């Protein structure tokens, strides 16, 4: 996503069954989606700065630094491997390749 964001957003739209039309591409809709879904855009929303889940957890805990590989500061190798196994199991039927 970080290396080729435009291509990945297009692929995601196709996967979801709503690919961008040529007209949308010309109007810059892909760039608009990227801007709206960017780390800066999402972490800066008021709801994500001050909102809370029904459980009382603050939304801001879902945002760290937005840096690729930052997970290494939070997970050791065993935890990462367990997370990978769980993700593969949960997404197995989706067709996504992790």
TrEMBL record:
Its EC number is 2.8.2.-. It comes from the Eukaryota. Transmembrane segments: none annotated. InterPro entries: P-loop_NTPase, Sulfotransferase_dom. The keyword Transferase applies. GO terms for molecular function: sulfotransferase activity. Gene3D superfamilies: P-loop containing nucleotide triphosphate hydrolases (3.40.50.300). Residues 1-94 form the Sulfotransferase domain. It is an enzyme of class 2 (transferase). Pfam families: Sulfotransfer_1. Keywords: Transferase. The keyword Transcription does not apply. Belongs to the sulfotransferase 1 family. This is Sulfotransferase. It comes from Salvia splendens (Scarlet sage).
């Amino acid at each position: 996503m970080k290396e080729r964001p435009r291509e990945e957003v297009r692929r995601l739209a196709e996967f979801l069954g709503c690919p961008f039309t040529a007209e949308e591409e010309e109007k810059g809709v892909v760039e608009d989606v990227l801007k709206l879904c960017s780390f800066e855009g999402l972490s800066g929303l008021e709801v994500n700065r001050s909102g809370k889940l029904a459980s009382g957890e603050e939304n801001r805990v879902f945002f760290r630094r937005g840096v690729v590989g930052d997970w290494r500061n939070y997970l050791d190798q065993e935890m990462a491997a367990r997370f990978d196994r769980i993700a593969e199991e949960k997404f197995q039927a989706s067709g996504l390749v992790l």
